[in-house]
Every structure is written in C-alpha cells, then in structure tokens.
Amino acid sequence: MKNIKIVEYIWLDGSKPTGQIRSKSRAINLPPNFTINDFPVWSFDGSSTNQATGNDSDCLLKPVNYVIDGLGNGGDYLVLCEVQNPDGTDHDSNTRAKLRKILDQGGKDLHLWVGFEQEYTMFRRNIPLGWPEHGFPGKQGPYYCGVGSEQIFGRDLANKHRQICMASGIMYYGMNAEVMPGQWEYQIGYRGVDSEDSTALNISDHMWIARWLMHRISEDYNIHISHDNKPVKGDWNGAGMHTNFSTQELRSAITGKKAMQDYITRLEKNHHMHIKNYGDKLEERLTGGHETSAISDFSAGDADRGCSIRIPRSVAEKGFGYIEDRRPGANADPYLVSALILATIAEIKISL
C-alpha cells in the first residue's frame, strides 16, 4: 500500500568558520508504523556545500531525527541528517558525531540536560529591522521584552516561528524581544516535562531544526536572519546562545552544591578550548561590557550576567538545579557547545 510522504532532508554543510544549514526534499513511501530507520540514506553534491571536490563529489545524508513539518506547505516531515563519506564513515564536518562520541565514552552516565537561548537579529536591506535608514534608533533600554510600535519590530515573524515550532513538535520553551531593536531570542530545551527527551543530543537536534525553520520562514517576510555575535558595532549588545545545563547529580539536593563547585572548577580549567569553539568573532561580543565577561577571563557568580557562568539566584539558594554558560555566541554550533560542556564536566578528553 502506498504511503507517499514529502520529506525535507536537513543537514549542516562544511562552510568555515561557521557551518550553514542546507536542505532538499523528496517523496518517500513510508510504512504505516515507521521509525527513523525507514527514511533512506540519500546522496548529495558535496562539492557545492564545501564538503567534497568536483571530481569525487558524492556525500551521504543519514537520517538521525525527525519532526512533523509544521510549515503547512504540503510537506509532511523534517528529517535531520548527519553527513557521511561515501563509505559510510563520518564526514569531517559532522559535529553531531563528535557529541555522540563523547556520550558513548561515558558522557551518557551524567544524564545531561541542556537548554539553549538563541539570540538573533532581523535585517532588511542590510539595516536592522526598525532602525532608521540613516543614523541610529534611541539608546538601548525600552526594547527588551518591550511592547508597542516604537519599541518592537518583527514580532509577526517571531510569533510565526513559535507557532510552527510548536506545530512541528520542537521542544520550544519561549521567546522575547531583546535589548537591541530588531533583536530577538527564543529558547529550546527542558520544559518541566520529565517524559520529554531533554538530552543534549535531542535538544541540539531541535536547536538546529528550529534554526532551519527560522531561516525558512524569514523567506516569506523578506527578512534576513543574522546570527552574528556583534551584528552592529559600537554601544549595542551582541548576540549570544546562552546555554543552561544540568546533570543528575546537579539536580540532586544531596550532591548538587558540590557538583556545581566541581563543574565550575573544571570549566575554568578548560576555558580556552571552550572559547575557541564557541563561535566566530566571539571576541567582538565578549568584551567585558554589555552583560558579558571579557573573553580572556573566566568568572562565575550568583545572578551575575557579567560572568562567564551564572548561577541563578534560586539555584544558589537551594544548592541544586542548573547553571548557565553565558559564553557561547549566537553562531555557535549546539553540538560542539554540548560536547564541550559534557566532556569538560565529565573529564573526558575531546579533540576538535
């Protein structure tokens, strides 16, 4: 019996220094009770995505996760794929495989949960949305979580992204307007439902699909989505991807406080490697101003948004829960951020 479905295959390319997201669609005859393994491996031209040369251009897309296609454009599923070489081995650009390796080396035992706060900036004709064509808007202050036509620009797009993420089954947590006009944030991660899969691998997958959806929806609004760490130079906030995380022992009232102290010590020890892999031009954002710690410094503090690691006030008072790594930039790779946090706190050697 035919069960033809339209499927969008999504993957990360080999662009440097920041990987870009690609996709293409096809019709697939799926069985009634299908699993991820029923989506076939599919080849593509890696020479057009910085992943192969023209004289040996075939790369493979291996489906690893999927959600419903909530776009309402005649598609049925969005399928996230890992890129493989023709022999089935992991491609060098496959950062998801790096996270899998850390999990397989003992990282799974920590039961890591993550949540990403993705900041982004909307542009039209190379100008941030809502900015005058010449000069600057009023100084930062009224825009963060603001309301009103003189404070908020682009809410239609941000709301549409929320609606489609929810319809797709993405673990969408929330959204808000950010400090700079035309700048927004959405969060993907743990939502207080223990039956949901809040593991680093699944949430990183959902983060990438949510990014793809944002770029795809922006086409309909003729708006460019920027993940630059410093979208506008000068006295304006940069854009980050603050990462909240917890482990089984960090969530425990018995072991939480000691685990927190141990993790912060290990994160400080490995600060340089994290900074190296937390996004392109991160130094433009981590200046020590605009709610950041200086890029060369490591710091931790209770409820302090000027630190590398923020311990939420409620967590500091209880002594257990989660902590926030405020260093990752808006263009950081969620797989690498998760892999580095996990490898560091679990003291697993990692090569990036």
Characterise this structure.
With 352 residues, the protein is of the alpha+beta class. It contains seven helices and 14 strands. The protein has helices at 95-104, 155-168, 200-221, 256-269, 271-276, 313-318, 334-346, and strands spanning 4-12, 21-29, 42-45, 58-68, 77-84, 113-124, 127-128, 172-177, 183-189, 224-226, 241-246, 300-302, 309-311, 323-325. Strands 6, 7, 8, 9, 10, 11, 12, 13 and 14 form a nine-stranded mixed β-sheet that branches. The chain has a five-stranded mixed β-sheet with strand order 2-1-5-4-3, covered by helices on one side. α3 packs antiparallel against α7 (334-346). The longest helix has 22 residues, at 200-221. The protein is globular. The N and C termini lie far apart (46 Å).
| SSE succession | EEEEEHEEHEEHEEHHEEHEH
* Secondary structure tally, helices: 7
Return residue spans where pLDDT drops below 50 for at least 5 consecutive residues.
none
Which quaternary structure do these chains form? single chain
Please, what is the average pLDDT? 95
Number of DSSP E strands = 14
N-C termini distance: 46 Å
- The secondary-structure class comes to alpha+beta
Work out the helicity level.
10-25%
- Give the percentage of residues in beta strands: 15-25%
Q: Report on the biggest sheet.
A: 9 strands, mixed
What's the overall geometry?
A: globular
Whole-number radius of gyration?
20 Å
Tell me briefly what this model is:
This protein has 352 residues and is α+β, with helices and mostly antiparallel strands. It has helices spanning 95-104, 155-168, 200-221, 256-269, 271-276, 313-318, 334-346, and strands spanning 4-12, 21-29, 42-45, 58-68, 77-84, 113-124, 127-128, 172-177, 183-189, 224-226, 241-246, 300-302, 309-311, 323-325. The longest helix is centred in the middle third of the chain and has 22 residues, at 200-221.
